[in-house]
Amino acid sequence: xxxxxxxxxxxxxxxxxxxxxxxxxxxxxxxxELNGQFExxxxxxxxxxxxxxxxxxYTEHHIPVSxxxxxPTQAHKIPLMKTAGDNSFLxxxxxxxxxxxxxxxxxDGLLGSVDALQNIGVPKILTLLLRRAIESAKMxxxxxxxxxxLLFPHLALSNEAMIAAYSPIRAxxxxxxxxxxxxxxxxxxxxxxxxxxxxIFINEPTSMxxxxxxxxxxxxxxxxxxxxxxxxxxxxVESGFIVWTLRESxxxxxxxxxxxxxxxxGHAPVTSVxxxxxxxxxxxxxxxxxxxxxWTLCQMQKTPLYRLxxxxxxxxxxxxxxxxxxxxxxPTPVFRLWGYEDSVMKPKRxxxxxxxxxxxxxxxxxxxxxxxxxxxxxxxxxxxxxTYEILPVFDFGEIKVSQDQDATLPRIGGEILQIEWDPSGxxxxxxxxxxxxxxxxxxxxxxxxxxxxxxxxCGQEGEVPVxxxxxxxxxxxxxxxxxxxxxxxxxxxxxxxxxxxxxxxMAEECRLYSSPLSHSQRRDSRNGNFSNVNISSAAFxxxxxxQHFRLFSSDKILED
Length: 560
Hints:
Shape: globular
Largest sheet: 5 strands, mixed
Radius of gyration: 27 Å
Number of strands: 32
Mean pLDDT: 76
Structural class: mainly beta
Helix content: 10-25%
Strand content: 25-35%
Oligomer: single chain
Low-confidence stretches: 1-11, 46-51, 73-90, 500-560
Strand order of the largest sheet: 2-1-31-30-29
Distance between the termini: 53 Å
Number of helices: 6
């Protein structure tokens, strides 16, 4: 019999993945939450448990996204066309004077224009001195670049590798999606595909799929953000960002137009875009640039939020309830919370001891933000008078689920790619880099705002989750959208009453339904058919017993 080996005795008592309920039996998938219980069905069975009729009214207008509906029009990127380097198929033209220098500079750069100076009578000694000066300047520039890559190794990566290293999408380079997000106020889902095209799913009574949106500049899509009040969204790409505007048309019901902005040199690839709550400001950030750019789109003016330390800003986001606070991460252990002081945005800086911030998510109330570092979930609470408190709230350290038999189930936990709050702030979904499940936490209301484990969301055999996103305008609890590796999108409803907003009669009515595989029955099951998968918390074996909960440096708040 396997046992759960606890963490060190001097570690604080935190909830962990070992406190989750047992995993479902093989061949079963999780289809939704009803009255606090996660319900299952056998995807290999043609029959139904009856619970689908409970969840169906909440997703009947949602378009079932599958491999047949979404098929990238280009399995691979079309390589850029290149002409022969020696231009042997062109006739040579002799040019003199300044025009020859200009042509040489266009063809061969600055050194080529220096060589062209000899053709117009410039002394050879002068051209040699110019050549030496240019070569020396290049050496200095290269030495700065080498020093920078030594300090920040991620800057030596290609743009594609850099995006993949910090993307919230699992296996971004090979995944069938590049980004996924919902509109803040309408049931419209935007998905960026592997060929860098974007498809819009309008999940309304008149459901429709918007045609693929593509542009020559739309290469290496990394992120998408909807404007809260205008039918438009912005896409972060390799060279900058693109703003797409969707307009209604009397002919076919829709039309599109786009505005492409070229971001300043050094601020690419753009890896994070986010509209503020009012929609008048847009922030962009890049893993290769230490500045966050705040754009006023009506005038296309940008204001940089610059700090030297960190080496880049992979992710940044506005607080959901205001346009005055921004949380940002770096590829190093430094992370910041920006806020206005004397009409100027200034950051508070913290430094983790172990690793960089892997993922973060603002609570919908905007009063705190949760973030993950070294597989520990922390809560940064923002006080009323400029006070801050950081506390560990959950341990996502990797564990291994084993059984009495020889078979071993996949490991759970470890590195986290994405965490998402539902709009009500009562459910937190967690996407791992290696685990084949999505973990769901619940929030206890009250002064402590403590998190408790709910359950795992499991897919079909052989598939793993690659991206998650909550629908922002869902009114009956929460609806989590999960993109699976098999090019399947699942709409996972959480049917619960809003705390202090909904009557408990809904929960009483939900009890009228019954399921042969409700989670409480699985937990107490003694049926021999499930004895080989009846895994309790005692069946978790710790893989890492050296967890240290001292994460932050002694100087909690440092000014840059």
